[in-house]
Amino acid sequence: MIKVKELYKSFGQNEVLKGINLNIKKGEVVAIIGPSGSGKSTLLRCLNLLEKPTSGQVIFEENDLTNTKGTKLDQLRQKMGMVFQGFNLFPHKKVIENITLTPLTLKKASKTELENQANQLLKKVGLEEKSNVYPSKLSGGQKQRVAIARALAMNPAVILFDEPTSALDPEVVGEVLAVMKDLAKEGMTMVVVTHEMGFAKNVSDHVIFMDEGIVQEEGAPEQIFENPQNERTKQFLSKVL
Ligand code: ADP
Ligand code: MG
């Protein structure tokens, strides 16, 4: 579904991504782990061109995003949902409006249809009773579940998660991971930057360990967690496990 070829990204003199190659298959859950500052968020943002690569290609469903512009690029990006650490909900809009706003603006369906769909998605993430409240009334875990429902409302082919549980109080991390686990079970393609090693180990199909802008090691979770080959991987895991 997504192919990354020789991706480089610099901010001024700072070369952050140094030749990344990746293949993400449909239905796969890919966990990206690695130390802070290693380029994980930059890589994720390059996948949907929120960040423009300095060179290299990002191919999404056969389309080279780095060589696509305008409406066509917008349409492709709409199929790539994104969930951030900080939720990014609109504070002055009710939960249901947060979910329907973008598909409504893009005229994806009628208002009634989109509201029905939004309520179903809220049910899916366990928040059906929160449809008409404002985000300020929600806990961090609830906000993040709304953000996931909002991403789902666009019927994405893939969802990119950037540390979706890092800003949460420990007691609500589990409820967000549970929703993500359900999505994984349903076959949603997911790319998840995470410090939750339990999720990477137990839910993902493929683990990518990044350090210093390079994929240092990748493989099945059993391989990475039980039999890492790269010294940096070993060092990192010894600190976080
Ligand atoms: P990670 O997500 O692994 O912690 P990031 O991708 O956020 O790493 O950052 C990698 C490096 O890129 C850091 O040195 C950071 O300062 C730099 N960086 C990230 N985004 C920007 C930006 N918009 N402008 C300048 N430097 C950036
Ligand atoms: Mg980051």
From TrEMBL:
<keyword id="KW-0547">Nucleotide-binding</keyword>
<feature type="domain" description="ABC transporter">
    <location>
        <begin position="2"/>
        <end position="237"/>
    </location>
</feature>
<dbReference type="InterPro" id="IPR030679">
    <property type="entry name" value="ABC_ATPase_HisP-typ"/>
</dbReference>
<dbReference type="GO" id="GO:0015424">
    <property type="term" value="F:ABC-type amino acid transporter activity"/>
</dbReference>
<dbReference type="InterPro" id="IPR027417">
    <property type="entry name" value="P-loop_NTPase"/>
</dbReference>
<dbReference type="InterPro" id="IPR003439">
    <property type="entry name" value="ABC_transporter-like_ATP-bd"/>
</dbReference>
<keyword id="KW-0029">Amino-acid transport</keyword>
<keyword id="KW-0067">ATP-binding</keyword>
<dbReference type="GO" id="GO:0005886">
    <property type="term" value="C:plasma membrane"/>
</dbReference>
<dbReference type="InterPro" id="IPR017871">
    <property type="entry name" value="ABC_transporter-like_CS"/>
</dbReference>
<dbReference type="InterPro" id="IPR003593">
    <property type="entry name" value="AAA+_ATPase"/>
</dbReference>
<feature type="coiled-coil region">
    <location>
        <begin position="104"/>
        <end position="131"/>
    </location>
</feature>
<dbReference type="GO" id="GO:0016887">
    <property type="term" value="F:ATP hydrolysis activity"/>
</dbReference>
<keyword id="KW-0813">Transport</keyword>
<dbReference type="InterPro" id="IPR050086">
    <property type="entry name" value="MetN_ABC_transporter-like"/>
</dbReference>
<protein>
    <submittedName>
        <fullName>Glutamine transport ATP-binding protein GlnQ</fullName>
    </submittedName>
</protein>
<keyword id="KW-1003">Cell membrane</keyword>
<keyword id="KW-0175">Coiled coil</keyword>
<comment type="similarity">
    <text>Belongs to the ABC transporter superfamily.</text>
</comment>
<dbReference type="GO" id="GO:0005524">
    <property type="term" value="F:ATP binding"/>
</dbReference>
<keyword id="KW-0472">Membrane</keyword>
<dbReference type="Pfam" id="PF00005">
    <property type="entry name" value="ABC_tran"/>
</dbReference>
